[in-house]
């Protein structure tokens, strides 16, 4: 133990006396190792980024929290594209009848539009009825009917879908989807379910000739007792406001009481909206009738301003009134011929095959470009790292052999010399490339001249 302590003391004394001869840790090596470590970390991060981008071509369920939050962020339904699913044709199915559609006038004959509820309405408790398309084919309006089983009552909303542009009119209607509808309905009925068996519906009647207004009839009644009241409503798309034309009902009741002595309040009667007048698009035409238990009694054809400001009697002969028909709807017009369907199926198969081939080629080119970009990035990082290390060694060498006042001057001088050498090197390469291009051009000119001489000799012979 004593000998060991004596040995340590001897080494310590030697260190004090001959310190220059004992090697100390080189701090520059530590800095270089740290820089090398950071460089390797950056290359690894770049590699992980490249691999992640390559794998995300076909997204899986594995993702980071930031990626999940980005994908789950709220999206605008109006801008979301809906892909029409292609149902596979069974191997044993030769031909499946495909319905053919065509566009017809909606309000033809005037006032016949009604909501038809199917058998599944009371099971699903909701149904979207057929819509009406504006004359300019820019929007589609459709009613959505709701059923409340607790009171066996119904209510209704009227929604608008803006149709896509750059499509044919038929394709616009066929591809209209409820996901693109405006969030808020333009019209809604009362949704109070206190009264049992009551129904409230909104049925579009027709658009005005310029598509700026929509005539709707609101029906209120009871499933056990029939219709109680029909109210014409006009929605103005220009000002986004609706007008309930209840004044026309008051005018009809006042006329029959003052001129005929009939109190319609004691009778069962209603109005039947027909559409916009052909002579003036700002006026709405309605027909009034009274229930008698048999044939309804005609109470006259009336017209009212679309704001409900004025009502007047037109005639007791409905056939003499001209009603404009402006909106459109789709109807089924038979089925597509089997030969056409088979040709379309074959064409779709060829298109899908070509599309898959193109996608495969594009994906292959994308991966190739991605790898080339990654390799170029790594090469650039390596070059930058070499330059940084070279510059670091230069600064260390200058600091070790020069006074503090001359370090910056000498460093700048060496960098200028290096820049000049690099510029000279680039100039030599440029001159060499120019000579090579000039030599190739002379060779091509000589070859062209020989070919020209040979062609002239052949012509002379």
What attributes characterize this protein structure?
461 residues; alpha+beta; 2 domains; 5-stranded antiparallel beta sheet; 4-stranded antiparallel beta sheet; elongated; disordered N terminus
Briefly characterize the structure.
With 461 residues, this protein is α+β, with helices and mostly antiparallel strands. Helices cover 43% and strands 23% of the residues.
The stretches of 5 or more residues where confidence is low (pLDDT under 50) are 1-6, 8-27
Strand content: 15-25%
Name the shape in a single word: elongated
Strands, count: 15
The largest sheet is: 5 strands, antiparallel
What is the helix content? 40-55%
What radius of gyration results from the CA coordinates? 43 Å
Which structural class is indicated by helix and strand composition?
alpha+beta
Discrete helix count: 8
> What are the secondary-structure elements, in order, as H or E?
HHHEHEEEEHEEEEEHEEEEEHH
User: Could you tell me the mean pLDDT?
Assistant: 83
- Tally of structural domains: 2
Report how far apart the termini are.
114 Å
What do you see in this structure?
By secondary structure, the protein is an alpha+beta fold. It has 2 domains: 99-335, no CATH class; 339-447. Helices cover 43% and strands 23% of the residues. Strands 2, 3, 4, 5 and 6 form a 5-stranded antiparallel beta sheet that branches. The chain has a 4-stranded antiparallel beta sheet with strand order 7-8-9-10, with no helix packed on it. A hairpin with a 4-residue loop joins strand 9 (226-236) and strand 10. It is elongated and about 120 Å long. It starts with a helix and ends with a helix.
